[in-house]
Amino acid sequence: MRAYDVIMKKRNGLENTKEEVEFMINNYVSGELKDYQMAAWLMAVYFNHMTDEERYNLTIAMLNSGDRVSLKDIKGKKIDKHSTGGVGDKTTIALAPMVASLGLSVSKLSGRGLGHTGGTIDKLESIPGYKTALSTEEFIDIANKTGIAIAGQTANIAPADKKIYALRDLTATVDEISLIASSIMSKKLAIDSDGIILDVKAGTGAFMKDIQDAKTLAESMVSIGKMNGKNMKALVTNMNQPLGMKVGNALEVYEAIETVKGKGPNDFQELCVELACYMAELSEEMSYEEAKEKLNKNIENGTVAKKMKEWISAQGGNSEVVDDPNLLTISKNKKEIYAENDGYIFNFDTEKIGIASMMLGAGRATKEDVIDLSVGLEVHVKLGDKIKKGDKIVTLYYSDNSDLKESEKTIKNAIKISDKKPDEFIVKTIYEIID
Question: What class of enzyme is it (predicted)?
Answer without folding.
Answer: transferase
